Amino acid sequence: MNAYEFLFFSDNLIPSPDKLTALDVLRKSLALGTNNSCIYLFTFELIEVGTSVEFSIGPVQQKNLGLKKPIVQLEICDNKKLVVLCDNLLQVLSIPSLEVSYNATKLKNVTSFQVHNALYEKSLELYIGTKKKSIVLLQLGDSKPQLIREISLPEVPLSFRVDGDALCVGLWSRYLLVNCAPDGTQQQQELFSLDDGQRVTPLVELVEKGEFLVTGMNNLGIFVSAKDGSSRRPPLQLDSNTLALACASPYVLSLSDEFLTVHSGLHYERQQVQTHSVNGGLSLALAREFARCGSLSHIVLIACQSGDLQAALPLPWYSQVEQMLREGQVSV
């Protein structure tokens, strides 16, 4: 049974010889980052004509940060800001001008980040992983950055996700679950270690409220409860060299350099639902809040090293049921 339809999105959004290194999508805004610190900002429309779907891409805004290093992470915010991480330097830009915002605040020694609160145009709250073996929650605005919370760690955080007061953190040698109480106290729990002999790039994604998904040994995707670190679902068998994860309930999408695999997170379904071949897979981006634009939800963009972009569109439930009937998986 297929869960997604794969469509061509674009192959020429970034001029040669630039290479795509990062992307993010919020509603109808698309941000791309390249290997030489260039940012490209687009708007796009999804046009449905009968059963056919096409993408229309609007004019581009462009900015070069001048760092000559790859952009490793981007996030478009609700308050018309774009957070950019390049060469361990974090900057906040205004949309659509791409001018540096918040009195040109630049934060150094940053390894990763997650936007926590972007409800107000004049301020932004960010969780930031640092080379100083910590994760800090900062409020950025027109004045000096304000420290709200600091979490000391045994190693440099490589990736993390936040769910309320819980953080799932991927370090070089292990995963940690950190719970922060309202009174400021913290509890850290080691989930499991990572074997140096079988190098695993720690990836963390939020599946749904109260649950994370992390990459573990033997190419397993392990579900982790935000409450106590337990796993209430069987692990997923991922492809080797998994580069990115995206969670669009009830499915989990994993990307390697050769395949995009759709997994079911439901107990009663076979886990690998669909496999799609890609050429030089690079990253995934879930089109957050796209349903608010009056169109499909759970669209996922697939980025390839060549700069090609594909879109994975969820098939309607009636189409999936028709497939299951044809394949004899269900009967009436």
From TrEMBL:
Subcellular location per the Swiss-Prot or TrEMBL entry: Cytoplasm
Its lineage opens with: Eukaryota, Metazoa, Spiralia, Lophotrochozoa, Platyhelminthes
Q: Which PROSITE patterns match?
A: CNH (PS50219)
Q: Which GO terms describe its biological process?
A: autophagy; endosomal vesicle fusion; protein transport
Q: Which organism is it from?
A: Macrostomum lignano
**Alphabetized UniProt keyword annotations:** Cytoplasm, Protein transport, Transport
Keyword Cytoplasm in the entry? The reply is yes
Identify the GO cellular component terms for this protein: cytoplasm; membrane
Mostly located where?
Answer: cytoplasm
Write the protein's name: CNH domain-containing protein
Residues of the CNH domain: 17-291
Recorded hits in InterPro entries, A to Z, give:
CNH_dom, Vam6/VPS39/TRAP1, WD40_repeat_dom_sf
Q: Does the keyword Cytoplasm apply?
A: yes
> What SUPFAM superfamilies does its record include?
WD40 repeat-like (SSF50978)
